[in-house]
Amino acid sequence: MKDKVGFIGLGLIGGSIAKAIRQYHPTYEIVAFDKNKETLALATQESVIDVAATTIDDNFRNCSYIFLCAPVSYNTAYLKQVAKYLGKGCILTDVGSVKTNIHNEVAALGLGSHFIGGHPMAGSEKSGYPNSKAMLIENAYFVLTPCAETKQENLDRYAAFVQQLGAIPVILEAHQHDYITGTISHLPHIIAASLVNFVRDNDTKEELMKNLAAGGFKDITRIASSSPTMWQHICVKNKENISQILANYIETLQQAKALVDQGDEQGLYQLFDTSRNYRNSLPSTSAGPIKKTFAVYCDIIDEAGGIATIATILASNNLNIKNIGIVHNREFEEGVLRIEFYDENSSNKAALLLQKYRYIVYER
Ligand SMILES: NC(=O)c1ccc[n+]([C@@H]2O[C@H](COP(=O)([O-])OP(=O)(O)OC[C@H]3O[C@@H](n4cnc5c(N)ncnc54)[C@H](O)[C@@H]3O)[C@@H](O)[C@H]2O)c1
Ligand SMILES: O=C(O)C(=O)C[C@]1(C(=O)O)C=C[C@@H](O)C=C1
């Protein structure tokens, strides 16, 4: 019998996992239910799924895995409904950003021998199936939270499956997961959202803040464009952790304010120096949506053929261009040419070469 995998919710994350399964296990049968009918139609048309279920029904019998990939409160609510389709050996999992709540419900329903929580530490501010891609989970940590009743062989099987899809399994206890993600994911989303709203509420009539906002504001607020429903559910379900973490964070903001109020030069230097060192020490794996890119930026003379000249110089030195285009933003007043390469070595060589040809090259 063919291996079968079920999805309940086929948006950004469900869709990405389904596409990765299609890529690495092309013979697996994939059945999905999503409240959005267009999503199911598109996934069927793209042959990502084999069966579009109109509800959670018999199609979910005999699955090796069932993934719950809707917003977290809905995943928890679906446990009861899905329970009757769990055959022997079926691993029931989810991809939710909060784990304790679903583990509590799993325990209440006696589903501990089937359930292993899952959470890929990758994503995007874009949501929905059309934005999903197999590569999203590639090289990303994928947290697994087993239950007390989880058999070691099932945990090993799920970890191996995650690895086959290109992700890196990490086993954590659900409470610990929620405190960690509360700090590194949920808090940053609340900060980004409230910072964006703070600017909106304090902007001038002419919206000068909105128009002058440059890289700093945009870098720290990308995630404010994320799905409001998803984050509403996360904040409700990880309430205790987030509340405590926010209180602690507000205290560190008060300390930063005190440094500013006191004009404490040494303290302010320390604030930025320690943060810079720690930020620079973050592992630069390619996990997550921000893949490492290798690009050089250079000024070009504003005349016909400017880009062609550069492309010819690079090509004649065997440097393959992955992407090329003019960037117009306030960091580069007149706009610059951004040339992306496939690897660091090519990018470094290109920078030296272009400098030799007297182009002004920027390193970022
Ligand atoms: N977006 C991220 O960065 C990210 C990363 C890791 C984990 N997660 C978690 O993954 C889960 C899904 O998030 P996403 O980013 O894929 O969101 P999404 O909005 O892209 O996808 C959610 C999907 O669930 C469907 N859905 C919503 N309510 C439903 C219901 N009641 N019944 C059936 N289908 C329903 C939607 O139609 C949509 O296709 C969430 O639990 C989230 O916490 C998200
Ligand atoms: O990169 C993003 O856009 C994300 O928000 C991804 C992100 C995160 O906070 O890092 C969001 C929620 C998840 O549960 C895991 C990953």
Model description:
- The chain is of the alpha/beta class.
- The chain folds into 3 domains: 170 residues, NAD(P)-binding Rossmann-like Domain (Rossmann fold, 3-Layer(aba) Sandwich); 103 residues, 6-phosphogluconate dehydrogenase C-terminal like domain (6-phosphogluconate dehydrogenase C-terminal fold); 69 residues, VC0802-like, CATH 3.30.2130.10.
- It has 13 helices and 12 strands.
- A 5-stranded parallel beta sheet has the order 3-2-1-4-5, covered by helices on one side. A 4-stranded antiparallel beta sheet has the order 10-11-9-12. A 3-stranded mixed beta sheet has the order 6-7-8, covered by helices on one side.
- Strand 4, helix 3 and strand 5 form a beta-alpha-beta unit.
- Helix 6 crosses helix 10.
- The longest helix has 29 residues.
- Nicotinamide-adenine-dinucleotide binds next to helix 1, helix 3, strand 6 and helix 9.
Summarize the structure.
It catalyses: prephenate + NAD(+) = 3-(4-hydroxyphenyl)pyruvate + CO2 + NADH. It contains 13 helices and twelve strands.
Total domain modules: 3
Number of alpha- plus pi-helical segments: 13
> Looking at the structure, what is the overall shape?
globular
Helix content: 40-55%
State the fourth-level CATH superfamily of the largest domain: NAD(P)-binding Rossmann-like Domain
Give the mean pLDDT.
Answer: 93
User: Which residues form runs of ≥5 with pLDDT under 50?
Assistant: none
Strand-pairing-aware structural class: alpha/beta
Rg is: 24 Å
Q: Could you tell me how far the N terminus lies from the C terminus, measured between alpha carbons in angstroms? A: 53 Å
List how many beta strands DSSP finds: 12
Strand order of the largest sheet: 3-2-1-4-5
Largest sheet: 5 strands, parallel
The CATH architecture designation of the largest domain is 3-Layer(aba) Sandwich
Task: Quote the beta fraction.
Answer: 15-25%
Reported by name, the CATH topology of the largest domain is Rossmann fold
**Mind telling me the CATH class of the largest domain?**
Alpha Beta
